[in-house]
Amino acid sequence: MKNYKTIKRLVRIVLLTVLIFSMAMPIYATDTTTDINELKTQNELLQQRSRFTTGSVAMILGVVALLAFLAVNGRWTRRLEIKNRQLQRERNVVVAQNKQLAIERDRAEAASRAKTAFIQSMTHEIRTPLNAISGFTQVLTMPVEIPEEERINCCKSIEDNTRLLTKILDDLLFISEMESNSELPAPEPCIASAMTEQALDVVSQMVAETVTLNNECSIADDLPLETYPRMIQIVLNKLLDNAVKFTEKGSITLRTALDNGQLHISVADTGPGIPEDKKEFIFERFTKLDSFAQGVGLGLAVARMIAEHLGGTLTLDTNYTGGSKFDLIVPMHNS
After folding, report:
1. Which helix (H) or strand (E) is 50 found in, with range?
2. Cα maximum dimension of the chain
């Protein structure tokens, strides 16, 4: 009986245990399912975050790479631009140097041609008066009687050719002296009218009978000028000699005036004038408009050289149509 009660008690305990376990199982299953779903949701969120993070990192790396490429490309572009500018400058320098070399070459060729022409002209111009002097001297020394008029003509020809030869040599020596010595002598007082009269007296014997010499000086004799009369005299002699050479009729007028503290002297003639395309060319050395005219083409070149040496100018008046007109302007040194 006792054992029966014990067994019955054990059966109750087992049934109670089974009942409790069966009641607890749905709760445990429900909790497990919920946990699994939460884990799945969290796993999906983590995967989405991982994909987003991976995409963001890739995008950032792409942007960084693009910026780096742009920076490097911009740097190389600037370097290329700098190199291109340097090459362009060097090219411009080379082009300028080539142009300068071409100019220097042309100048050298022109100088060579001028020297050749000068030697040929000098040979002719020096030989001509020398031959004349030699020939007329032989005539005068011949042991024969010659008429007085012919003897006078021979002496005059010898004198004229001697003067011409001396003038040629003086021009050459003067150019050499001017180029080797740039210092000016001290200015001297002079009377303008006396200076111009002296210049006209030098050429008065060579003027044609149909040409008149005019001296128009507006500077009073009681107003001495501090200037360089000897050098101005040389310029006037060159200008007047040129006017006398080409003026066969009409007049040669020498005008002198003071203008704004400067000495203004002009020489105007009624000769044939100077062609438009030769108006600056005439001041070049060894230039002759008429190859048959007497001289070596140094007169105007020497005259302009002296004018510039004195700080002045010598120009051709292009507005003058009655022949040729040269204007000499020299600054004064009055105290």
Report:
1. helix 2-140
2. 211
